[in-house]
Each structure stands twice: as C-alpha cells, then as structure tokens.
C-alpha cells in the first residue's frame, strides 16, 4: 500500500477493506457483516431450518443443564459466568434459569462490543429472571476480561458459544484461546461451542439457504462499504457462493463477480477492477473433529475437562481448563 494512502486510512474497517480489495485473490473479513441490518439477518439465519447449529446447541444446553451446572460449580463453588459475545443470550438463558432456580452462587457478566445488544439483554433478564445478579460489560473481549480478572479471586467460567470460534482460521483460534488461557486461573473453566464435521450436504445447505438470507448476509459487507466508505458496488452483479471441503472441515463463503466491472470506493481512494467470475473471499466457518479440538487445546495450553454433544454429536460444547 502506498505510504500516503496508508496514512489517510483512519479506521480499521478502511484499512482492511483497502488491503483486502487491493490484494489477489481479494478478501474481506466476516467481522464486518455485523451492523444493525447484519445483526437482524443473522437472527433470521439462526431461525432457519437449514441452520442447524443454533438448535443443536439449544438441545445440548437443555438436555444437559444439570450436568453442566455441576461441572461449573463443582460442589458449591461460587463463580462468575462470563459470556463473550453474549448477543441476545437466548441459549444462555436456559443455563441462567436453571442456575437461579437451583440457588447456585453465581453472577452473570455478559460481554459484548454492542451496548445496544447488552441493554436489550439486561432488560429482558430483569423481567424473565428478576433475582439474577447480572452486570453487563461493554467492550472488547480481552480488555474486559482483564478488568474482570483484577476484581477479586472468584472462580471464572467463560462461555464462548455459537461456534463463533469457527470463524477463525486455526492459527487465529490458537491465538484467541491462548489469550483467554493467559487470563484464566487454576480453577477457571472455558466452555466453547464447536460445530463438528458431518454430512457435507447438510453443512452446505446451512450456508446456502433457498430464500437468499445467507446471500443477503454475505452481501451486507458490500452494502456497508457503499454506505460507510462511499462505494458503488452493484449488488446484482455479485452472487453468493459457498464451498465445503470435507477433508479440512472448512466451509468458505465467497462473493463472485458475475461480469467484468469496476468499483470506486471514494473514501479510501480505491478503484477495484473485477474480471468476470473473480472472487472475494468473505468468511470461513470451520467444522471440527475431536482430534483437531484436542490439538487446538494443546497448542493453547488448555486441557479438555469434558464435552457435551447433541443426540448425533453434530455439535459439541467443550469444557477446558488451563
Ligand atoms: C457467527 N458464526 C458462527 C456463523 C457461522 O456459522 O459461521 C456466521 C454465519 N455465516 C453464515 N451463516 C452464519
């Protein structure tokens, strides 16, 4: 990137869009799918019959609630239940309800980058579980976890649900887990949702719904570039394309240019040329097997305590300690 332009790019979004679209092959990061509209589209995705992940994790938390609570409290230990990227907390509420009704000694601390999401969650918890001790924390995961760490020595149970780890490449996932591990004490636990390898057709369908909701979610990144960076992408000239490699377990999302075209993105002074059928890689959704999860844990200084699966072991929640 030229020095002068690099200096002019102020936000992380501007920098990453510039670098990703000036690169070959082109790429953009799926973390930019999520604005107000992207959040709504993702809610719709989670309610689609094809997107089995949400239902499977819901099943695990509903079917194994008592066992999970027992692992968390190990007897009668008090703990802080910290959730990274809590969102609307729909699945977590199963655990919260059980823990509250059975008088477990715990405090719920959801962390999210979106104050809006946290306010909504807090409001719903005040009516649904009025006796719950809840303290919302707005911020990035690690800054907030560090703050929580310095408070006192209470045991921490950290939740990272929804297969969010799957949106990271293996080296990034190791980095992420290592950073969490550094902030864990001896008794602390980490509870992570993993989508497991399964029939490739089922996985492809989950990311390729017939109603075009996933396509709209994928294209939302172009909508954001148009609005926030003064771009002129024509959404009709791109199609959503999903692949799944059953060997590596990687599902990949692309936006494919259906004809040659030139796009101007004024705010970052970038003109992008597309050949017909050229791609922008936008997301990976990694699927795992038990060996890969053990390998990830080893690399990150973590140890598997136990795991809970749905009836077919299509999806698993793993518990780690350091
Ligand atoms: C948030 N994340 C775990 C979702 C996934 O399954 O990778 C995002 C998503 N992308 C397309 N559909 C859902």
From TrEMBL:
**EC top class named in words:** transferase
Cite a single GO MF annotation: L-histidine N(alpha)-methyltransferase activity
What GO biological process terms does the UniProt entry carry, in alphabetical order? methylation
Q: What keywords are annotated for this sequence in UniProt?
A: Methyltransferase, Transferase
User: Which intervals hold domain Histidine-specific methyltransferase SAM-dependent?
Assistant: 13-321
Q: Which EC number(s) does UniProt give?
A: 2.1.1.44
Q: Which Pfam families does the entry mention?
A: Methyltransf_33
Identify this protein by name: L-histidine N(Alpha)-methyltransferase
The scientific name of the source species is Pricia mediterranea
């Amino acid at each position: 990137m030229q020095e002068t332009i690099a200096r002019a790019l102020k936000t992380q979004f501007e920098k990453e869009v510039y670098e990703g679209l000036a690169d070959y092959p082109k790429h953009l990061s799926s973390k930019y799918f999520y604005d107000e509209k992207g959040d709504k589209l993702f809610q719709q995705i989670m309610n689609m019959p094809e997107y089995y992940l949400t239902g499977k994790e819901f099943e695990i938390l509903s079917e194994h609630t008592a066992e999970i609570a027992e692992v968390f409290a190990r007897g009668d230990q008090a703990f802080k239940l910290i959730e990274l990227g809590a969102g609307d907390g729909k699945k977590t509420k199963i655990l919260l309800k059980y823990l509250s009704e059975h008088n477990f000694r715990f405090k719920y601390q959801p962390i999210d980058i979106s104050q809006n999401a946290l306010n909504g969650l807090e409001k719903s918890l005040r009516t649904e579980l009025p006796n719950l001790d809840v303290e919302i924390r707005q911020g990035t995961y690690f800054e907030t976890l560090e703050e929580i760490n310095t408070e006192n020595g209470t045991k921490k149970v950290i939740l990272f649900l929804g297969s969010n780890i799957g949106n990271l490449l293996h080296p990034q996932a190791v980095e992420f887990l290592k950073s969490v591990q550094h902030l864990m004490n001896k008794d602390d636990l980490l509870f992570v949702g993993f989508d497991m390898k399964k029939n490739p057709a089922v996985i492809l369908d989950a990311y390729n719904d017939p109603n075009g909701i996933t396509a709209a979610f994928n294209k939302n990144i172009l909508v954001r570039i148009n609005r926030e960076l003064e771009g002129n992408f024509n959404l009709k000239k791109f199609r959503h394309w999903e692949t799944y490699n059953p060997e590596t377990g990687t599902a990949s999302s692309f936006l494919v240019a259906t004809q040659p075209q030139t796009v101007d993105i004024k705010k970052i002074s970038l003109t992008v040329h597309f050949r017909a059928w050229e791609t922008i890689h936008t997301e990976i959704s990694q699927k795992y097997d038990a060996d890969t999860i053990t390998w990830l844990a080893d690399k990150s200084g973590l140890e598997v305590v136990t795991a809970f699966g749905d009836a077919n072991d299509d999806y698993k929640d793993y518990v780690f300690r350091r």
